[in-house]
Please model this.
Amino acid sequence: MRTSPQQRLREWIAAPAYPWITGGAVTAGAVVELIAIPGGVTTTVGVLVSAASLMWRRSFPPVAVLTVAAGLIGFAGDVNLYVSIMVSGLAGCYALGRNRVVHPALAVAGGALGALCVNLVHINTWSRMDLPVPALWEKGSLSLFAESFLLTVVVFGAVMMGDAVRSREETRTERSLAQDRLIAMERQQAAEAERAAIARELHDIVSHSVSMIAVQAESATYTTPGLTPEARDGFQQIAGTARSSMAELRRLLGVLRTPQGDTALTAPQPTLDHLAELLDQHRAVGGTAELRITGERVALPAAWELSAYRIAQEALTNARKHAPGARTLVEVDYGADRLLTLRVRDDGPGTGTASGSGSASRPGTGTGHGLTGMRERAALVGGRLTAGSGPDGGFLVEAELPWGSG
Model:
């Protein structure tokens, strides 16, 4: 991905070598200026110190106070205003505001006081040079302080610019942190919602098994000949325990109920045998899909069957949203090592915009929650799920679900 000139400029400014390069360049310019226009000792020292101190303005921001002070002293020592003093003074004032070495109001007040002192020194110099200098409070005397006013305005502008940049970066950082917290919260809520959905679906599976236990235990007391009273009581206790478990499961379902109700839970939970119907639904809305099964079909535990089906369903939804019209291949591999591998790949672009809460996000995005749900499904049965660009392009979702210990 190509970067813009503005981005490259920001990266160069943020580089550790930037203050050393710019400070060294200003110092070199100051040396050239002093050779061309020699000044007194005070001016020479002030110019060089002000320029050289810029090299430490990032590693040690308080040095900006020395930069500005040395610049004002150098300017006060000579009526000539060196370009290097202007550059270093502006950079120093900017650094004061940018790094909040002191409060901006205090920095401007200190700069204004320094500018007034420089102006007074220059007024004294002008009088010793036999220039017409009106006495204070006489007509035209206020024009003598135009220099201090101008310097104060420059100091104010540079400090405020630095403080504005600092405030903007702090705001940007706070906004980025708030956005990260919001995304993390949304992901956590999505994961919790998916776990609740998984629990509701598993409720039907477990309830069916427990109800079968209750029915079989109850019927065994009448269909099994020669039962002792103790055995009959044991079967009745099993049936009673199963019915109590059913009641507890119904209360649990009440805790997990959704605002839309739980009518969908009355339907049989889908299994891998329903994948063909799922692909027919995908084709009915304009998608192109193929189902490929390898290995011998194994009747997996209900949780594995349901998790694999839901992962395939979510991956197909993701393909329809981010790669409409792309060819999709669903592969189911019943491995000999008791490992179910499910792959859903498409030949779409492989990357895309962030999805909503109903589909998995493509690589490079971070706001989609479907991928979170698929990972929760895989983790439920001790498996793992990966998603990203496929080896031949497109997008690939791969889930490995070991069922040997199920």
In short: The first strand starts at residue 288 and ends at 294. The longest helix spans residues 146-223. Residues 261-266, 352-361, 363-368 have pLDDT under 50 and may be disordered. DSSP finds eleven helices and five strands in the chain.
